[in-house]
Write a structure and sequence with these properties.
217 residues; mainly alpha; 7 helices
Length: 217
């Protein structure tokens, strides 16, 4: 059974959430390919390891910023939901915040790894660089690389859980959880809801006008 238009408008993610979600997916996809397949890429394409790692680190820093924004947007929007917050929402909320926490931690540890190697994290398209969090320290590199790997695998597990849950909603529960994150669905929801609201406004205006005419008679 399809939800009514008004319900779709209430349940739909905002445009900013949809944009931030797909931006995160794109950044994470590039980051994972550059990080996990760096040796294959350098061997098969002739691209230097430095270039691959610049892409990996750049996407990581961008993902760090986007994740902080997404966390604020999600928390503020969830608070606004009020009475609609149920146990299923609580579980989804917890998984999302856990993903954000792992991304944040992994990116921050990666930042420390770069600095511990005696390198700086450049700010793209400028001659500036991000602040150095630590001084060069070979021993710290070993520890933080291990931490980065553990956080990354933990993040992969959470992402797998997130994807499986989304697919289960779509193919087993058959609700609109997955479709709500689609641009086309978002546009259709607005296209349907606007005429409904306009019709309600016209009906309210008609009732008001009818009352005025009745009083004159």
């Amino acid at each position: 059974m399809h939800s009514p238009p008004a319900a779709l408008a209430t349940q739909a993610y905002t445009t900013s959430q949809i944009a931030l979600h797909w931006l995160s997916v794109s950044l994470m996809g590039i980051l994972i390919l550059a990080g996990e397949l760096r040796h294959v890429l350098t061997a098969q394409t002739g691209v230097s390891m430095r270039s691959v790692m610049i892409v990996h680190i750049g996407c990581g820093m961008a993902l760090l910023v986007v994740t902080m924004v997404r966390t604020v947007v999600r928390i503020t929007r969830r608070r606004a939901a009020g009475a609609d917050f149920c146990m299923q929402d609580a579980c989804a909320h917890a998984v999302h915040l856990s993903i954000y926490a792992f991304i944040f931690a992994s990116c921050m540890v990666g930042w420390v790894v770069v600095n511990a190697k005696g390198l700086a994290v450049p700010l793209p398209f400028t001659n500036l660089e991000f602040p150095r969090l630590v001084a060069a320290d070979p021993a710290l590199v070993v520890t933080t690389v291990w931490m980065h790997d553990m956080l990354t695998w933990g993040l992969y597990g959470l992402l797998a859980l997130h994807i499986v849950a989304a697919l289960a909603h779509h193919f087993i529960v058959r609700d609109d959880t997955l479709a709500r994150m689609a641009w086309r669905r978002r546009q259709r929801s607005h296209a349907v809801v606007v005429p409904v609201r306009a019709a309600r406004n016209r009906a309210a205006a008609s009732r008001s006008t009818a009352g005025v005419h009745f009083s004159k008679n």
